[in-house]
Amino acid sequence: MAYTVSRLTDYSAAALEKAADECIAACTAEASEVRSDLDLKSFRDRWMARKNGILTQINDLWLKGAPKEAKREAGIRVNEIKSAVADIIDKAEHIRLEISTAAIQSVDISLPGIRRPIGAEHPVIKTMHEIVGVFQKLGYSVAEGPVVETDYYNFEALNFPPNHPARDTQDTLFIAGQQSKPQRERLLLRTHTSPVQIRTMEKMRPPIRIVIPGTVHRNDPPDASHSPMFHQIEGLAVDTNITFGDLKGTLDHAMKALFGSSVKTHFRPSFFPFTEPSAELYVTCFICGGSGKRGADPCRPCKQTGWIEVLGCGMVDPNVFEFVKDNGYDPKKVSGFAFGMGVDRLALLKYGVDDLQYFFQGDVRFLEQFG
Ligand code: DAH
Questions:
Q1: How do beta strands 208-217 and 307-316 pair?
Q2: Among 289, 288, 292, 281, CA closest to 253
Q3: pTM for the whole thing?
């Protein structure tokens, strides 16, 4: 039976207390029945409505109708009821609010949580960091330079004279509309990280030991082993009395640190305009261990030779030092070695990936395997 306010005949303190208790208990019980916003509204109206709400009725029947001598006591009780009812309604409103907020972000703790995909280091960048790390431990610092470079830094100051055939090996991508400038100022996409050798020597006096990671571009159509954009790490050490022995010792150490201490290194004569003498460095194939075979099958990464070419290197050509002579690089006083390696190919071999394009397609299904 729903609670109704009846007229009071007995205004004794005990009777007032009993009536008040009944009223508050009824209100509490009704609050517990509130299930929806609509329930809440009718519950609040039933008790609080100015016109004929229960509190108004109590005011009229119990207070205004009280005999003079009971007015004070009745007043105290009625106020008590009002504040208790206000509290109960307040609480009911709060509970409703919490329930509807929870419904919006409904939390079911029995369900698996939402996993936010965490980024992972790209395999090429990871390989780059590893290589740079090996040289940092040897005391090398990191230098960087621009990807859009001038002919001067990319070629001329590296001892590629204008029209020299060695330029052809670089499949250069030139920036359009540069013809009106003198050749050395014309812009191109750097084809290697070597121009940063010159840029760094212009800024820092010898001795220097630097590694230069970065992206380079060449006019190579994309396929399983080529990409018009790829990554290189360059190295340069200049000091007094640097010899080819230092070059060999440093690179042998670096290869062992990168590929394991059982790896052997092997230098073959080569040509680069900016080094003299020049060499290519080979390491024993870290896939087949140098045997050229994988079980009964031929080892593909090393083309069955047991050796993998990892970089170009050499002693800095005195002609290169001539371009930075004024900053302390007198070729009669200093000597140095340089090297440059392609990072992407090493990452391919390291992770056993058979198509270079996977590295640049940004497919999460490929990349998340490295997470
Ligand atoms: N820049 C050369 C290239 O991209 C690689 C290279 C060879 C860099 C010999 C060097 C070096 O510093 O000494 O083919």
A1: unpaired
A2: 281
A3: 0.71
